[in-house]
C-alpha cells in the first residue's frame, strides 16, 4: 500500500519594510492573515540603506542588494511570498520577481506610484483610487487586529484595565504629517472636549500617543486628561495598544492616520474621528468611506453608541493572495 504523500512544507512569507511602526504593521498584518489560512513561516525583514542612497529616488538605486546595510538578510533562498510596504522597499520589490526566477509572489501595500507590472498583487487603500488587474483596493490598510489578539492582550493587561469604569474610551493620538498638525491650541481644545464627554459619561480613558505626536501636544493632553480615571501610556514598558482596543466601548482617533482608524474600525466599537489642524481630500474620502459602512463619525463632543460589522479587510486581502497564489503555481522548492 502506497504511503500518503508528505505534507507540503509551510509557505515562506517575508514581511518587508524599513521598520517604521506605521509602515511595518501593514506587511506583517497581511502576512499573519495569510498564515491563518495556510501553514506559513512569517519572517520580518527590516531594511536599511547605506549612506545617502535611502534619501534618493528609489529608481537611482541601481544595485540595491549591494547598498543594503543588512544585505545578507535579503538574499536567496527567496520566499514564496514577498509582502512589502513603503517607498524604501521599492528598489527591492520591483526586482524580487526577476531575482527569484518568477518563483516569488510579490505583494506591495500602498500605491507604489510607478508601473504596476513588477507586482503580482497591490493592496492599496481605496482612497488612493488605484486600479488594475493586479490591484485589490481595501478600505484602510492591512493591520494585525483580530479578536484573538485583542482578547490575549486584554488578558495580559487585565490588572490595569479591569478596574476602570465603563464606558472605557480608547484615545489614539497621532501627530504632525504632511497634511495635518496638532499644535498646542488644538491639543487644548481636543483635551477639553474629551474630558467633558468622559466625565459626563462617568467613564475612563485609555490614552496612547504615536511617535509623531508633538511633545507640546503630548504634555498638554496628558495634563488635561490625567485627572480622569484611566491609563495614559507613556511609551515605556509593554505596549497596551491592542489591550486598549480590546477594552474600548468607544474609540477616539485623530484624523491623520489610516492605520489607527482602520484598526479602530476592526473592533466593532463606535469610532469617533478627532479633528486636527490641516486638511486632506484623500483622508476625507477615507473617513467618508468609514462613515458609509457605519464604522465612524466625526467627533462632536458627545459619546453615543451604534453598531456595525467590524472591518475585516486584512482577511479579505489575505484570501485574495492565497487565491492568486494557486493560479501563480505551487511554490517551487527553496
The pLDDT mean sits at: 95
Structural class: alpha/beta
Shape: globular
Helix tally equals 12
Helix percentage range = 25-40%
Poorly predicted sequence stretches spanning 5 or more consecutive residues: none
Number of domains: 2
Name the CATH superfamily assignment of the largest domain: Glycogen Phosphorylase B
Count of extended strands: 13
What is Rg?
21 Å
CATH topology of the largest domain: Rossmann fold
Tell me the strand order in the biggest sheet: 9-8-6-10-11-13
Descriptive keywords:
single chain; 334 residues; alpha/beta; Rossmann fold; 2 domains; six-stranded parallel sheet; five-stranded parallel sheet; 13 strands; globular
Describe this structure in words.
The chain is of the alpha/beta class and 334 residues long. α5 (147-156) crosses α9 (241-247). The protein has two domains: 11-139 and 314-328, Rossmann fold, CATH 3.40.50.2000; 147-298, Glycogen Phosphorylase B (Rossmann fold). Helix content is 34%, strand content 17%. It has helices spanning 21-35, 64-67, 90-93, 96-99, 147-156, 158-161, 184-201, 215-225, 241-247, 258-265, 281-292, 313-328, and strands at 11-17, 40-46, 81-84, 105-109, 121-123, 168-173, 180-181, 204-209, 230-232, 250-254, 271-274, 277-278, 296-298. The strands form three sheets. The chain has a six-stranded parallel beta sheet, with helices on both faces. A five-stranded parallel beta sheet has the order 2-1-3-4-5, covered by helices on one side. The chain has a two-stranded antiparallel ribbon with strand order 7-12. It is globular, with a radius of gyration of 21 Å. The chain contains twelve helices and 13 strands.
